Amino acid sequence: MRIVRWFEDWVVVLSFVVIVVVTFVNVLARYLFQASLAFSEEITINLLVVMTMMGAVVGIRLGAHLGFTYLVENAQGGTRRVLIVVGAALMIVFLAVLLIWGGEMLVHQAARGRATPSLGIPQWLFTLSIPLAGLLGIVRTVQSARTALTEDTSAEAVTERLAREAAPVVDDLEIGGRR
Asked: What keywords does the record list, in alphabetical order (predicted)?
């Protein structure tokens, strides 16, 4: 799962970097040369969709989405379990819709040879983020629900887990030491 985590993070980061660079260059081009880059809107909108979809998956993984945490954290025993399972089931249904309908849209775009207007990039490359986010979101939702059922999910525990996950991992080899 480390590779999947790396992939999720880097798709979001690279999408954001490209959006920022293309938008900045387009602003410079408009003000310095009074000419806009024709492809800038196309690439930023498509990458914004990619970044949003994969960012949602990262949010599920990190437990960063809004939810009725007050109810779950204050519920006891069986009620807590039911709330977690029902919440996860509803998320899985929504993500399955993204997976299925996004997959259908992807197949139709690929079959028709639909491309972006300015750059001619196959549209399905951008649309792939929708069913992929649905699939990865389902996996992350199941992981999240399993964690919530077996571990402490209080705000303090989640904050501590997020801090551990966000902290860079440096081993002895990176600082010149030996194992």
From this structure: Cell inner membrane, Cell membrane, Membrane, Transmembrane, Transmembrane helix, Transport
Burial of 74 (0-12, 13-18, 19+ CB in 10 A): exposed
Residue 179 to residue 173: CA distance in whole angstroms? 7
- pLDDT tens digits, 31-48: 999 888 888 999 999 999
- Residue ranges covered by each domain of the chain: 2-177
In one letter, which amino acid is 118? S
Q: In angstroms, rounded to a whole number, what is the distance separating the alpha carbons of residues 51 and 21?
A: 15
Amino acid at 5: R
In the block, tokens 């399972």 appear at: 85
Instruction: Name the pTM for this structure.
Output: 0.80
Bridge partners of residue 115, in order along the sequence: 122
User: How much is the pLDDT for 148?
Assistant: 86
Section 104-128 average pLDDT: 94
Q: What is the mean pLDDT of residues 82-89?
A: 92
Token pair for 85: 């399972």
Spell out a b/e string for 77-107, using b for 16 or more CB atoms within 10 Å of the CB, else e. Answer: eeebeebbeebbeebbeebeebbeebbebbe
- At position 169, the amino acid (one-letter code) is V
The phi and psi torsions of 131 (rounded to 5 degrees) equal -70, -30
